[in-house]
Task: structure prediction
Amino acid sequence: MKKTVFIFLSLLSVFCFAQKTDPLLTSGRAKQQAGKHQAAIVDLSGSIKKSEPEVQKYLKKLDAFSKMSAFEKADKGAQAPTIASSYAVPYYYRSISFIATGKNTEALKDLDLALQMSPSYGKAISLRGKIKWDGGNKCEGCTDLALALVLKDSSAKEMFDDKLCWTEAVKLYKDADSKQKAGQYDPAIELLVKALKICPDSVRFILLRGKCYYGLKKYDLALQDLNVVISKSSQTGEAFTWRGMVYNATEKYQEAFDDLSKAIQLNANDADAFLNRGFSNEMLSKQKPAMSDYDQVIKLKPSDGMGYFKRGLLKQVMGDKKGGCKDYKKAVELGCTDAADYAGRCK
Result:
């Protein structure tokens, strides 16, 4: 019992020491506010030196913890080390004076250390974001500013808007969209991860990532993203189309039919929704509705051979070999290479 009380009192004394105002920190901030940044750096460095043993001990523990595998952490019941957030304060203020004296590299080092000790230090995250942006690293700068916004740092919003971070995110999105259309799904996802760090609630970005996961046949991840989009924006017909495609790919044809019908309800000109619902209908043994869907695809996209090809396949299944061949040949004329072998078998 005595040992427990002693340990508690020892920990309390350390905590109280960390929390009490350091005269060097106070004088350093006063000199900083007076514009005397070199003198402020001297005082703030003195404040940092006092707490350096505790900080280094913490950083050593943090490094060891980060190198442990998930299994080791669970097996040993390891918990992430902690340190009083007050230890981060002099690093943050010294970074301000470093910036004022043109020492941005040193400022970044101080801010990184401050955030290792206090990861939710909004002011430090905002300031680091500004330095990164000004140094040309716009994406990481905006990512920091976006995180600071989430942490409700008062300076972050103005900085986020002033730095045109939304424009930066849209640029990443457009590059990702081009790569997705070219079938370069992994590079597209890398760009979208960066864009989503800046604008984490953008349904456009999440939807495009879902499309990329579909292209990679990672249907579980695609479904997660598409579910998020639909939960956030239930009138986004394209999300229902792509989720219907995921359901078709995973042989959940009734769910696919329901989603694709919803997509068509939201956008009666969505040819992809009709095309994929036609397939769902076929798998549900609804040949006439499937035929109607393929007819609609051809009506909406008369220069796309895929509608003719799919309709030709269905006609052949229904015994209309002549009609099927006619559609195959038309599909080939329109550039649908999938139909070439089928057209070649026709007399």
User: Anything to note?
Assistant: Confidence is low (pLDDT under 50) at residues 1-19. The chain has 20 helices and no strands. The CA atoms of residues 328 and 343 lie 5 Å apart. The domain at 17-68+82-119 is CATH 1.25.40 (Serine Threonine Protein Phosphatase 5, Tetratricopeptide repeat).
